Amino acid sequence: MEVAIVTGASSGIGQSAALQLAKRGTGVILTYGTNRQGALDTVAAIEELGGAAVALPLDVGRSGGFPAFRDSVVTALRETWQRDTFDYLVNNAGFAQMAMFEDTTEELFDKFARVLLKGPYFLTQRLLPLMEDGGAIVNTTSNSAMESGMEEGYSAYASMKGGLMVLTRYMAKEFSKRGIRVNAIAPGATRTRLADDAFERFPEVIPAIAAKTALGRVGEPDDIGMVIATLLSEEGRWITAQNIEVAGGYNL
């Protein structure tokens, strides 16, 4: 059985990606930050589908914890799948926070850098020796780093996501020697728990976002999760080094 590692899968896009992969018969090691119950719910949902999943805690903003996480992955692979390697990695964990340029603190800037750029860089570096040749990676970026999705208040957040887009291309170039494909998906506004459940707290913003979206609604986690699963699968075998906007035609 193929196995995927999906970071930040206790809710939203990561949870959807984990479930979509499980539906395709892939085992899942999923990570969570503070939402342990959400991760356990994801595991339960995968098991209901007849799949196998393991939830592990991980703070992607603290690279010092990556060696211990790698050891946990090795243990999970052996105990659950009788394997020493895995096939797919989804660098999805992150956080969002709106802050105008003049209000952005160094502390917030550094946190964005640690979680959104440094985390995926060194987590991938740590896990790469365990990855099968011919595997695939998907990084979650954001259309806030593209002209189509630029909105005021995301200068620091989007700068890190833009860095992750560049990193995606370099990973694709360097990992191609092992037949490993690396792509990124750039969601637009999606109904997730990001930014402290912003859509739950401010439902009045939804009609305005839908009006700016060609397909006439806000994105749902499965809109993104299905694309992630497809890129990792055989259908995506000839796609690498791409950043694919998945935003329903935002600002089109």
UniProtKB/TrEMBL annotation:
It holds the Pfam family adh_short_C2. GO terms for biological process: fatty acid elongation. It comes from the Bacteria. Keywords: Oxidoreductase. Signal peptide: none annotated. Belongs to the short-chain dehydrogenases/reductases (SDR) family. This is NAD(P)-dependent dehydrogenase, short-chain alcohol dehydrogenase family.
